[in-house]
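Re: duplicated header lines in exported structure tokens

Our pipeline writes sequence and tokens for each protein into one text file. With two proteins the header for the second block appears twice in some exports. Here is an export where it did not happen, for reference. First protein block:
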Amino acid sequence: MASSAPKSRVRLSDIAQRLKINKATVSRALRNDRRISRAVCAQVQRVALQMGYRPDPMLAALAEYRRSGTPRPISAVLALVNYWPEPTKPRVCREFKLSWKAATAEAERTGYRLEEFRVGKDLTIPRLEKILLTRNINGILIPPHGNLWLTGEKFRWDEFCVVRFGDSMETPVTHLVSSDLLSNGLLAFENVWNKGYRRIGLVAVTRPADRPARFAAGFLYGQLNLPGKLRLPLLLLGKQDSEQRRQQQLVAWLTKTKPEAILTDVEVLRGMLATAGYRVPQDLGLATSSVLDGNADAGIYQNSDEIGKTAVQLLISLIHLNERGIPAIPREVLIKGRWVDGSTLPAR
């Protein structure tokens, strides 16, 4: 009768003995350590798979516990690439400031330092690439840039681990950590409805990138089960339109749809409503896709601190696994927001 005794676990030393290399090289090769050539990494990983090697999860957990039990010394730098024409402008956005602060704290907690690099006249893309390679900085965070980025400029992405976060640019198509805008749009609609409002409209600014449109998609999904007379058409203000043109569009839309409450991502909408003779909340309830930046205290809190923290965690995991360049299958990690009651949207 065949023995039912379990097979002994394949150890790093077994792989090292098979390949006639030392155990430390095997360990580093399995983690795609840059100190080991890609050819050796591939050979070690192939042999490990053939021999049935599996990491011991208990030992791995113990090693991680020992590493995280005390603060780690700063051992490396992560680059945050700021490509804005006005490099201080992103800091005006409270959502971004919160993400940046959390990303910086998480980097320090895990033994890294987050350093900003402002691309512009004094720091060109080729020079940035050279600096990062010279300093052995192999992790890049790309913060929100709207429709800005490296159009027509070459960059050796295969040398770096890259993560975008927030309402980021469309290219390069790397892994992304961002707010779950679609879920937030639905969440906002449901909460406005539960406050007693029935004629609910949405005012947004059209953008080249499609990510902000997901908030509108969530809103439209919330409207699906409403009778036709309560499905108010969206008002999409052109990003390049003049203030006068936008004001005319708003007044025409208000006159036609007669909303009781408005959801919006337009920070200046409250002022536009005042110019049109509407008071918030006496005449109209108002809620925003961002209670930090939307000029209304009712709406969605996007948990931007969690976005920054998660972006750094994802980037560090890519560094540990040596996953560089533009991924064949980019991943999106979506962070759900939460609803916040406020004075701009009292219960009816």
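Second protein block, exported in the same file:
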Amino acid sequence: MREAARTGVRGLVRSAALGKSRGAIVARMAFASIATRGFSVVASLLTVPIVLHHLGAERYGLWTATLALAGLFTIADGGIANSLISHVSRAHGAGDRAAIRVLIGSGLAATAAFGLAFIPLVLIAVHFVNWTWAFNLPDAAMGREAGFVIASICLCYALGLPATVIRQARLGLLQGTAVSLWDLAATIVSVGALVVAVLLGGGITVMAVVWAAVLALARSASAVIFLIGSGRDIRPSWRDVRPAACRVLIASGVVVLLYTLSQAFAVQSDQILIARLSGIKAVTAYAIVQRLFNQPQILMTMFLAAQWPAYGEALGRGDDEWIRRHFIRTLIVLTACAAVACLAIALLCDEILYVWIGSAVVASPALIAAMAVYGVVTAAANTFSFFYLSLRMNRRVVIAQTAMLAIALPVSILLIPRFGSPGAAVGPIVGYLAAIVIPGILMLDRTLASVPAFRGGVFLDIREPASQPVSAGG
């Protein structure tokens, strides 16, 4: 009995030490991500007046609308790259490097197959869409520009797909600090290239290609250096591609894909809806105010992204108590921080806009208020969503995001013609509250109690690759 007691005490001490170590890793990853994003925020804010004055209000609206639509093409990997984070982090928690190698090899194969099928369909669709009509543009020349921009960014995303798989796998290995440093370097170079393109008089298409291509090249360089260096023991070969692993990653990827699509259609599509229902000029003021209020949320998302692999690693080790404690603390702290940040921005919004871009854009009080509420609600909703994704609570994610989309889009479409651009922000607010935040709070105890049920089916049987598929979970 004494020996059992000593063993139990040692287990508790070890668990506490692992929890502290995991918390330190999360903190470093979050700090690196926030620092990188902080530079990106500053660079973005500085480039807005440069791009705005270079393109003019009308073409700047086209620029933001096309970038928002092109952001949908990040789904070109079918969500497989992001699904790797949970699987790799769990295998990492168990010290199973062979399983990690199989996951990466299978992820690369599945992503390549999905991308080869998806990208041609997108390019064909881009070619046949009447962008002059879709964006409610004043002339056909701007419509052709929009098509070129979207097609160019789509191709750049396609070239960067393999590197994205490696990047997400490294996040699962809790190497977010190194990933963030590469992202920082890519951001610095891409911002510089964008400014050079503007100074040389480049049009929207040149600017878009420069922006997207630099990011793709930087991620590719990072992936190659990792695989020939510290990651050479998990560098996959064709022998590591397993049909069972591909099926698991595709199944998990579909959930991530649905999440990304719902986010894009309910949030990123607001500028497209405004352009169609209120005209392209109305997009400019909305996009600039939205960017201002998005900055605190983006930084908080970086922290949530850093937690994603930590939750998976803790689940792989069986540290359920750390998961419960950390999630509740995160939900309270991030929601409170979002409320303080959005209130401060709302009170100082007019002054910030004047210092930032002069008198080119004037924000209505209704738009400012809607964006402030949107920022707080989104912080709480994202905390729940990232938690569900990290533990592969797949059914919960699908139901919540589908309901959010079904609520948000109709509300936005109904309100934009009547109230203008503020109506575009109200749709996601109502959707997030009704489908994610309120149900998440009401079901919090039940959700945390069910965490151990998602531990099964984590690892791959590398000796019997075709006979024992991995559970997709959830």
